[in-house]
Amino acid sequence: MADIAGERPDPDALLKTLDDAARQAVRGKLRVYFGSSAGVGKTYAMLVAARAQAAQGASVLAGIVETHGRRETATLLDGLTILPLKEVAYRGHVLKEFDLDGALAARPGLVLVDELAHSNAPGSRHAKRWQDIEELLAAGIDVWTTLNVQHLDSLNEAVGSITGVRVWETVPDEVFDAADEVILVDLSADELLRRLKEGKVYLPEQARHATRNFFRKGNLIALRELALRRTADHVDDDVQAYRRDRAIEPVWRTREAVVACIGPDADAEYVIRSAHRLSQQLECDLHVVTIDTPRAAPTPQAEQDRMQRSLALADSLGARTETLAGGDMVDAVVRYVRRHNITKAIVGRTRATGLQRLRLSVSALLTAAITPGWLWRRHSFADMLAAGCPEIDIIRLGAPPLPASAAPGRDPLTLGRRARSATDDRNGSPWAGYAWALCYCAAATGLSMLAFPVLHQTNIVMLFLLAVVGVALRHGRGPAALASVVSVALFDFFFVQPLASFAVSDVQYLLTFGVLLSVGLLIGQLTAGLRLQALASVKREADARSLYEFARELSSALLPEQIVASAGAFVHATFGSRCALYILGLDDRLKLASPAADDMPPLESALAQWVYDHGQPAGAGTATLSNSDLLYLPLKAPMRTRGVLALAAPRRSLFSHPDSRRQIEAYATLIAIALERLHYVEVAQQALVSMESERLRNSLLAAVSHDLRTPLTSLVGMTDTLMRQQSTLPPDIQDTIRAMRDQAQRMHALVVNLLDMARLQSRDTPLRLEWQSIEELVGASLAAMRESLAAHRVTVASLSYLPLVECDGVLIERVLCNLLENAAKYTPAGSTLHLHAAVHENELRVAVSDNGPGVAPGAERRIFEKFTRGERESATPGVGLGLAVCEAIITAHHGRIWVEHTPGLASGAQFVFSLPLGTPPPMHPETL
Questions:
Q1: Residue in 566, 577, 551 with CA at minimum distance from that of residue 420
Q2: Integer angstrom CA distances of residue 586 from 84, 589, 609, 679
Q3: How far is it, in rounded angstroms, from Cα 121 to Cα 129?
Q4: CA separation for the pair 713, 733 (Å, rounded)
Q5: pLDDT band with cut points at 50, 70 and 90 for residue 827
Q6: Cα separation of 564 and 542, whole Å?
Q7: pLDDT, position 748
Q8: Boundaries of each Histidine kinase domain copy (predicted)?
Q9: Is the pLDDT score of 841 beyond 80?
Q10: d(Cα 319, Cα 335) in Å, to the nearest integer?
Q11: What confidence score (pLDDT) does residue 660 get?
């Protein structure tokens, strides 16, 4: 076998490979038909392939095949040799199992053994069927079998948590991994459910039970994903074995894998955690390697302890760790990457110290001034690894973040604040730029002195111009102007005759000085302008990013407390400002959402209320109460103002700067929209709960009413029968019978109201609209309520002149009955009830008035709600459904119903309902 890497093969590895090949030559081959669940067609696919093998002359024996009553599957057994099953006696029963001895005695070329995870009957040679298959394979017989993903040992618990069904028959993963061939039999969830419904998986009763439990679409999708992933793992192992056998070195990107390359540096744990996050996102394996290079001196104890902690962290994260030996770090990592077919390598980058940054700056200056870049280029480990293994991705991490105590502004959310302040404190102090300008000029002078007199004075001028450009690019306009003036002076003092003097021997040098100064100032101005534009772009990008991050954070908030916490964190990170939120409560009053921070000035609730009422900002930086230490902004949402944001800035100029003010107002708008979103989510939830409660209550009312109606009808009939025979009964029994009859009729009326309410609100039954005379409907109502109105006097105005109205006569009669009964209930005996009707504009109004206690102020609409009663509810029987039924009926007729005080009386109530008038059909005279 050729060794492409140029290394000598390991003799032990070669012997092991030959020994494994010899064992595999005498061992049978195992093929597993693998699927996500029952019914995908594993047995069917196995039998189709077996018939093809038999047609080619192979010796095929059907050891045991479970058809589960499927006719299509049983048909495929025709023409195959079927091994009789062995009978095993167990507790008075005879169980049929796979005959292992019979299969060994027949010695076919191929045996079909269905259901690999099956448990054999007690008394069999092996407890599990996969153990029978192991014996067949050891005897040199090929075996084909089937297996579902839920029967794998490692996935059994995961499948149980997904489906809620725990499978107790399992197969060790080693058996599955050792299979020579795994064939995935796949079927979509919808297709499998269709097969289940058609009875192609289970019998009808079993299929219905399976659909309610295991065979749910979500379960099937999850099981399908597990089966695909497990098959991919097996195929990946086959790929690795093939690459090892063929000594293939280049990485095949068949599957993602990540390796983190660490050393004894302080950033090792940072690299491991970053690599772990990437592997989690890619859902792939993670490797962590380090290099054990030979050293003349022993490794310091601190580095050893740091490396041990890093490797322990990698183990805890589930990574595969390995310490590579060799003098060449790059070569060792390349060999490991190719051996394990890894596609991505993660390397770290240590943060440079102050001395290292100075050395890099000097190197860059020397590179640009004197030597070609390739002389100073230093190849990093990442560069050398990319050159040694160009087929993989090299990911070089940024330097690990400093601790909070060392770098308080390193939080990612402070990008906007850092960019905003970059123009005035980039180097700590405004005077630092001028100090750096002097340093640049000194460095240029030193380099020029080293090159003088080899270089002509013209070239030396270029070095000073380069220093001016560097100062302008790095530190701005003012330091660049200073560098221009100082450069002219230094050039004159050190390089123009007479030396060490500011005198000029040749007038031509004055032109040189003027050009150097002018060009330096011009270049400095242009470079500084470009720098400011770049800083402005960075600031705008940082502002947009902070707004994006804030909006994304608010979009996932489900509680007002989460919005408050996010607002406080982002506002402080972006502006360095503490904030507090006043949020509108359910009672439409402002409430402080959370206690203010200790370092905030005292809050002014009255000022916050003024801002909310007027919808205008107030406080610091505004025209209203500008002496306040806080800025109050209204949280204006599209529909209404949702609260007030109070901010305390570290400097008052923050509130007056236009860019900062716009950014703050954008934050306030995002907070307002988030609060309004939560408000409407809560409103929708309450509406949904109310609708569901109403639906359940109506269903309950309908069910109870139907169950009560039949016995009540019988009870009323029996009391009527007893009433006809009361003359033969004693007086006390007659009173009891009359009381029973009254209560039965009252209960019957209540049940009728319940049924009407349920029917009207469910809208199951349409209205039977016909043209009716209101006079006839009133007469029918009075006749029906004769007994209830016996103790009252009823006066009815003339109704004969009124037009016909299109309505459901039965339901409008029910409205009149309920109004008359309600008036009789709440007025004393002997009172007079009035009923009249009139046409008003395009509607017919019918009124029932009494001289009772009337309706309390403010309760005019509440009394029409279900289960609501008047002032005398303790003494008046009923459950408060009559008026609710009336309103439901009138609303269904597109009319209105209301209550008002009885005209002309100090007390009493008048209930009025209206029905729309239409165009009645023409009346034809009757023919005698």
A1: 577
A2: 77, 7, 16, 9
A3: 10
A4: 21
A5: confident
A6: 22
A7: 72
A8: 703-919
A9: yes
A10: 19
A11: 80
Q: Report helix angle 432-451 to 477-495, nearest 10.
A: 30
For 90-111, how does the pLDDT look when each residue is reduced to its tens digit (9 = 90+)? 777 788 889 888 899 888 999 9
| Nearest residue to 44 (alpha-carbon basis) of 76, 7, 4, 16 | 76
pTM listed for this prediction: 0.38
Higher pLDDT, 902 or 198: 902
Residues with Cβ < 8 Å from 921, sequence gap 6 or more?
771
End-to-end CA distance of the chain: 122
The closest of 105, 104, 100 to 88, measured between CA atoms, is 100
Q: Please, which residues bridge with residue 912 across strands? A: 847, 898
Of 186, 257, 189, 256, whose CA–CA distance to 227 is shortest?
Answer: 186
Rounded Cα distance between 788 and 820, Å, is 9
Q: Rounded to whole angstroms, how far apart are CA atoms 382 and 334?
A: 12
380 and 352 in contact (C-beta within 8 Å)? no
Residue 7 confidence (pLDDT) above 70:
no
Q: Are strands 285-292 and 320-325 parallel, antiparallel or unpaired?
A: parallel
Check the CA dihedral 191-193-197-202 and report its sign.
positive
On whether the CB atoms of residues 577 and 654 are closer than 8 A, the answer is yes
CB 817 within 8 A of CB 833: no
- With beta carbons less than 8 A apart as the criterion, state whether 472 and 528 touch: yes
C-alpha closest to that of 865 among 845, 883, 839: 883
Task: Count CB atoms within 10 A of the CB of residue 446.
Answer: 11
CA distance 457 to 505: 15
Polymer length in residues for the chain: 928
Q: How far is CA 746 from CA 115, 774, 888, in A?
A: 69, 26, 21
Q: Which of 176, 95, 91 is nearest to 130 (CA)?
A: 176
Coil, helix or strand at residue 180: coil
Q: 396 forms bridges with which residues in the sheet?
A: 347
Say whether pLDDT at 762 is over 80: no
Burial degree of 123 (CB within 10 A; 0-12, 13-18, 19+): exposed
Residue 686 CB contacts under 8 Å (≥ 6 apart), including other chains: none
Higher pLDDT, 363 or 282: 282
